[in-house]
Structures are given as C-alpha cells and as structure tokens.
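Can't paste images in this forum, so I'm doing it all in text. The chain is below; anyone willing to post the predicted structure tokens underneath?
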Amino acid sequence: MTKRSPHGQLGFTLIEMLIALSVFFLILAGVFQVFGPSNVLYATGQRKVDVQQNARIAMDMIVRQVRMAGYFPENFDDPDALPNLVGPVPIQIATDGVLAVYGDADGSGASNVFLFCLDAGGLRRARGANNVVTSYQCAGGEVLAENVTNLRFAYYDANNVPLPDPPATPHLLDGQAEGAIPDFTVTTQRAAIRTVVITLTAQEAVPGQPAAVYTLSSNVRLRNLN
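Text version of the structure:
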C-alpha cells in the first residue's frame, strides 16, 4: 500500500519561496521609498523648530535681564550704606552690536555686569563683577543660542528719540566699546537711554533647500531708570 503524506504537509517549492521573497522585498522597498523622504522632512522640520525655539529662549532671557538693568538690591539691603549704586552705571556699554548692563538682572541678589554680544560661536552672554575687564569681553561668555547670524540694538530716550541722534554707524554711545572696562567721564548718551530695541536673526541651513531665516524683535522699557 502506498503511504500518502497528510494534506498541507508537503511544504513550499523553491520557486514559491523565491516568488514570496520577491514580493516581500518589493513591499519593503516601497515602504522605504515612503519612509525615507518623510524622515528627512521630519528631521529638517525639527532642526528649524529647534533653531526658532532656541532664538526665542535667548531673546526672552535678554529681554528680562535688560529690563532689570539698574536694579541694585544692595541699596535696599542696606539703604544707609554709602555710596549707593546710582547714576549712569546701569548702562555700561551700548553699541549697535553689544550691550552691557549692570544690576541684579538674574535675581541672584547681587549686582553684576551682563554683556550680550555675537561672535563666531553664537549669541553670548558674559556675566561678571563690575570693573573687571573679563566682564566686558564677548569671547568669555556662555553661548545662549547657536545659528544666530545677526544681533542688533537700537536705543531711545524718554521721548523716543533715537540715540545717537542723528544715527551713526557704528553706534558707540559715549565712545565705549566691548573689550575694555568702560569709562564714565562722559555719560550723556548712556544716561539718556530709556528703551532698547533688540533684533536677532537665526538661520538654519539645510542642504539642497533655501536657508530658513527667523527674525525676532523686542522693545524693552528699562523699568528701573527714572
């Protein structure tokens, strides 16, 4: 008697396996063709969002700390101590690309110099003691945001008249610039500042696509200056 194999136990032939593998690889190739560009678009979009978010965070920090220029907790902690911190000291350097303010800008409880600037490493903030040269040097500051291509400051007095008036290029109010301890022999322009307009531009370069440019601007009223 001839013994027969049970139905369904004969297995697959080599040709059937090759056909099944071919169909599987065709489906897999189609999936990668859809997923690949989508993944690239997602990564590109995420980089743009990161650049925008970092620029917003940096701008928010600059706005908050510039607004607090001239707040000296030392004067309130011991109001009878002499001399109190007063006068033009809150605005120490004011150029079209660099701003240095003095006061308790970060809520630490003590006054410090905060210098905001831009160099090849990104948007920076230097923080240090008053009348110490390193407090006025951009290169030693921490990076607040990368991919920032432009940082500009504009200054206005209590009547919204631009400083300097007429405008000059570059703006070096009272002739003071980044890199050295500022001089306060002449303070006419810095003492008149009541509003600072901050503009920064961030750019994300994506290969094969136009550069994505993102610009932020904020008007900051100095609340601690009369």
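Residues 51-221 form one domain. Residues 14-67 form the longest helix (54 residues).
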